[in-house]
Amino acid sequence: MLLPLHAMMKLSSFSVLVVSTLLSTLTLITSSPILSLRPITPQEDCTSCAANPLAKTDPTVPTGMINSTTSVHIVPYGYARALIPSQYGILTSAYADFGIPASQYPLIIETTIDHDIRFDNINAVPDFSSFRISFPFIDGLGDGYSSFRFIHYLYLPATGLLSITGAEEYGEVVLPGVFDPPGAGYAITPGGKGVSFSVYAGPLAEVFGGAPVGQALFEFTSNTTATAPYLLDFYVNVTSQPQFGTNTSVCDNQVRLWNTSVTVGSPAVAPRSIFGNVTVSPPLLPVKTVFTGVYGVVAATAFIESTNLNCEASKGS
Fold it and tell me: Distance (Å, rounded) from C-alpha 163 to C-alpha 31?
């Protein structure tokens, strides 16, 4: 998610407040000899990401790489309907094509890191992590067939001023987060049997032993590339739908490419199926919720992005 180009020099009041508060608070508490704090630094470069393969082939548009953990949570339709603003319809027929009945809904939970973001041959935005629940297959235009993703809350590093301002342009509510691991979309568990991640609400939550707002532990379902039980086409679809928040006049159209040489040519970053448990706390969901027996996929994919796009321009996506 990139900052719209027309707003590159605009820093949100939220961002400035978070950073100034963080600096003053850290100055106060680090003076105490009894506290041993984990250093709070700007978002680290991704330690496990591949280089952007589109930087040379598509230099005039924003491109980059995403390392991600994407999990699919099948919930009752009524549960999802209560979380999605009532003015937006849900395109049940669109996800029925993937074998999900209309009585259910595929809620998507993702932790990602955007890496090697390029535009006009420059590294346009520093690497940044994010954590979100996205609601795909939303009838954003009211035309009965154009699928969009609705994102209400989004956790980003408090130091990522450009990414924060970009998300706020789309009406997404940005919350400061600390990510573990800080430089990847997931951590490989001991023995290489799976992946995990934790996200904390603000830079001091982890320091003082606060519970994560998001946490997951997955095992790989096989030692070979796989995306069962959902076809790869499902992930391609739900991760590339144009997204918006409370501002429906502009959308972010980030198209993830699952077929570049990086994704299909490197076993280290090729899509792999995962199975495990995910815990999510408010405000992402109304109450703390533990999802068990969840399937998903870890992958590294390139992306092309159109920012600050009139949502009407994405009609039929």
Answer: 31
Question: In the numeric block, which tokens belong to residue 136?
Answer: 């795909």
What is the rounded distance in angstroms from the CA atom of residue 27 to the CA atom of residue 161? 21
**pLDDT(5) > 50:** no
Confirm whether pTM is higher than 0.90. Answer: no
Q: Tens digit of pLDDT for each residue in 72-114?
A: 999 999 999 999 999 999 999 999 999 999 999 999 999 999 9
**Is residue 314's pLDDT more than 50?**
yes
DSSP E strands in 128-285: the ranges are 128-139, 147-150, 153-156, 173-180, 187-188, 194-201, 214-220, 243-244, 250-257, 272-280
**Each residue of 177-215: pLDDT tens digit?**
999 988 788 888 998 899 999 999 976 776 667 889 999
**Cα gap 112→272, rounded to integer Å:** 15
Q: Are 104 and 38 in contact (CB under 8 A)?
A: no
Residues composing the chain? 317
For residue 91, give the nearest of 149, 134, 171, 154 by alpha carbon: 149
3-state secondary structure of 69: strand
Among all chains, which residue has been given the structure tokens 């040519």?
265
Q: How far apart are CA 265 and CA 258, in angstroms?
A: 11
Other CB atoms closer than 10 Å to residue 140's CB: what's the count?
Answer: 25
pLDDT, position 28: 30
Closest CA to 270 of 223, 219, 216, 215: 223
Q: Is 68 exposed, middle or buried (0-12, 13-18, 19+ CB in 10 A)?
A: buried
The average confidence (pLDDT) of the chain is 81
Q: Return the half-sphere exposure (C-beta side, CA atoms, 13 A cut-off) of residue 264.
A: 6
Angle, CA of 235, 241 and 242, to the nearest 5°: 155
Determine contact, residues 204/133, Cβ cutoff 8 Å.
Answer: no
Tens digits of per-residue pLDDT, 48-65? 678 888 988 888 889 999
